[in-house]
Write a structure and sequence with these properties.
Subcellular location (chain B): Cell membrane
Number of strands of chain A: 10
Shape of chain A: globular
Order of helices and strands of chain A: EEEHEEHEHHHHEHEHEE
Strand content of chain B: 15-25%
Strand content of chain A: 15-25%
Number of domains of chain B: 2
CATH superfamily of the largest domain in chain A: P-loop containing nucleotide triphosphate hydrolases
Number of domains of chain A: 2
Protein name (chain B): Nickel import system ATP-binding protein NikD
Strand order of the largest sheet of chain B: 6-7-8-3-9-10-12-11
CATH class of the largest domain in chain B: Alpha Beta
GO biological process, one term (chain B): peptide transport
Structural class of chain A: alpha/beta
CATH superfamily of the largest domain in chain B: P-loop containing nucleotide triphosphate hydrolases
Structural class of chain B: alpha/beta
Organism (chain B): Halopolyspora algeriensis
Shape of chain B: globular
Radius of gyration of chain B: 20 Å
Oligomer: heterodimer
Keywords (chain B): ATP-binding, Cell membrane, Ion transport, Membrane, Nickel, Nickel transport, Nucleotide-binding, Translocase, Transport
Distance between the termini of chain A: 32 Å
CATH architecture of the largest domain in chain A: 3-Layer(aba) Sandwich
Strand order of the largest sheet of chain A: 6-7-8-3-9-10
Chain lengths: 235, 343
């Protein structure tokens, strides 16, 4: 289980974006996180993937409390959590080929011996052709690049996957294809997934349980309607 | 909202009204340098469309199928290695006494800059936040745009335009980085309408917005069409298209494969690709279309071999007329479809 307890986090002193958030992502399940833009969904994604230190509260991975964030995160915990961002173009090095993008995590971990086999396997699984693997980000579409980003996130076989608006830039068919790949991970490898999206129809279809986030109090439960917080109009 | 923007109220929303913008076999190719094999990318092939006053035409399709290139071609914003063929006639040029036409693809840059962009054709860009000048307030940019496009406009019209777009006057005084995605989107909408253009192109205007903001943005596009403008909504969001578009054109691998009134096309798709897209929606079955769109550099050969490129990707879609192999869309009343005539 990947869990956050009493998480308080933000960017500007005195104005927390997350204010005492609790969340649990059990292995082998998809937890949906919904809410209007600006309510802290992405901040939660950053904290849970150990990219941002919370001001208060704690994150635990399979029962072990995380003691360091960002570069201070222990490798074992850092690699247990994969992250896919909303905008693939801003999430890759524009100088790398798609092959290198997918290979990067393995490369960084010094696991070069399994590199070529694993990249080929992932590329095939995600439907990235050999020809695409040799291209750079500006030569492929958003959908093709996001496939590579999901492959990269899965490269080191994370036990948890945080998908922060993974499909917001994508067309219906690519969305359905990527969600299917993630679902296979959940079923076959018991991966726990946090699926962040503002698309309620998508979460209804994809997630086993949906948490709705709105500024200040947080309700967790069985698809309770959004209440309180600023109206979407104000955000 | 300013008087001029309100002035053109149309009662005519019939599909038969005279078009404001007519595309006739518009094609765009990008020539690749020798370093990259010297081939060519077929981004748009023989696209014929008509934008009519009072109607919203949604151009939908997978990412990378050429939708955005089409909008850039109409505004003369393509890179130097692009080759454009066909015609794009913009009627009712109000800067000419008799109401002449402009051919957008051959118009020189001076005509595009002084008469077309912002004045006859407004653009609502993708990711509005990055489209704004970061070092100036939204107000400075909006007021300058109004001043340049309509020198005789009331100085207060920035506030009116912003109010129409859903911004409070004080929100205009922020710099782009202080605006949320939704607010930046409203500024972009106000900017696109600053010159009161009869034609509005919206290129993925809702990307990254949450559902209430998507609905709001596309409803605004519906409103501006209701004032007698012609709107082209380029989007991969079928729900947004269904909500606002009167007509829809489905693009696959550089070609328009099906077009017609939205309710009919989405209600009973004739082309298996349209059906595949609808079936991929969470509420439509969540089934991805098997295979992948072809690379736009290989279309020439694929089309010679297969005719209909979609059947090469996905030959077995039950319930559709057998493929004729002719990529050219054929008219059937109000609707057009390529390769798969209605059963």
């Amino acid at each position: 289980m990947l869990s956050g307890t009493g998480l308080v986090a933000g960017y500007r002193k005195g104005t927390p974006v997350l204010n005492g958030m609790d969340i649990e992502i059990p292995a082998g399940s998809v937890v949906g996180l919904a809410g209007p833009s600006g309510c802290g969904k992405s901040t939660l994604a950053r904290v849970l993937s150990l990219l941002q230190q919370p001001w208060a509260g704690r994150v635990s991975v399979d029962g072990a409390v995380v003691t360091g964030f960002r570069h201070a995160a222990p490798r074992e915990q850092r690699t247990a959590i994969g992250l896919v961002f909303q905008q693939p173009r801003q999430a890759v090095d524009p100088r790398f080929t798609l092959w290198r993008i997918i290979a990067e995590p393995l490369h960084a971990l010094g696991r070069s011996e399994e590199l070529s086999g694993r990249v080929a396997e992932l590329a095939e699984h995600l439907g990235v052709s050999d020809e695409l693997l040799s291209r750079r980000p500006h030569e492929v579409s958003d959908g093709q690049l996001q496939r590579a980003c999901l492959a990269r996130a899965l490269a080191v076989r994370p036990r948890y996957l945080v998908c922060d608006e993974m499909t917001a830039m994508l067309d219906a068919s690519t969305t359905a294809a990527l969600v299917r790949v993630v679902d296979e991970q959940v079923r076959d490898a018991g991966t726990g997934v946090l699926a962040i999206s503002h698309d309620e129809r998508l979460l209804e279809r994809w997630a086993h349980r949906v948490v709705r986030l709105c500024p200040a109090p947080v309700w967790e439960g069985d698809r309770r309607p959004f209440r309180g917080g600023p109206t979407p109009d104000e955000v | 909202m300013s008087e001029t923007v309100n002035a053109t109220v149309s009662t005519a929303i019939s599909p038969r009204t005279e078009p404001l913008l007519e595309l006739d076999r518009l094609s765009v190719r990008f020539l690749l340098g020798r370093r990259r094999g010297g081939g060519e990318v077929r981004a748009v092939t023989d696209a014929s469309l008509a934008l009519r006053p009072g109607r919203v035409l949604a151009l939908v399709g997978e990412s990378g199928c050429g939708k955005s290139v089409l909008a850039s071609a109409l505004l003369g914003l393509l890179p130097a290695n692009a080759q454009v063929r066909g015609r794009a006639l913009l009627h009712r040029d109000r800067t000419v006494e008799s109401g002449g036409s402009v051919e957008l693809l051959t118009a020189p840059e001076s005509v595009l800059a002084r008469r077309v962009r912002g004045r006859l054709v407004g653009l609502v860009p993708q990711s509005a936040g990055t489209h704004l000048t970061p070092v100036r307030t939204a107000r400075a940019q909006l007021e300058e745009t109004i001043r340049r496009l309509r020198p005789r406009a009331d100085p207060a019209s920035a506030d009116e335009l912003a109010d129409w777009a859903g911004l409070r006057p004080e929100q205009l005084d922020h710099h782009p980085h202080e605006l949320s995605g939704g607010m930046a989107q409203r500024v972009a909408m106000a900017l696109a309408l600053a010159g009161d253009p009869p034609v509005v192109l919206a290129d993925e205007p809702t990307t990254g917005l949450d559902r209430p903001l998507v609905d709001r943005t596309v409803d605004q596009l519906g409103d501006i069409a209701g004032q007698g403008r012609a709107v082209l909504l380029i989007t991969h969001d079928l729900a947004a298209a269904r909500r606002v578009a009167t007509d829809v054109a489905v693009m696959y691998a550089s070609r328009i494969v099906e077009a017609g009134p939205t309710a009919e096309v989405f209600g009973e798709p004739w082309h298996p690709y349209t059906a595949g897209l609808l079936r991929a929606l969470p509420e439509g079955g969540f089934e991805p279309i098997p295979g992948h769109p072809p690379s736009l550099t290989e279309l020439e050969g694929l089309e010679r071999k297969w005719g209909c490129v979609f059947c090469q990707r996905c030959p077995e879609m039950p319930g559709f007329a057998p493929c004729t192999g002719d990529p050219e869309p054929i008219d059937h009343g109000d609707r057009r479809v390529a390769a798969h005539p209605p059963c």
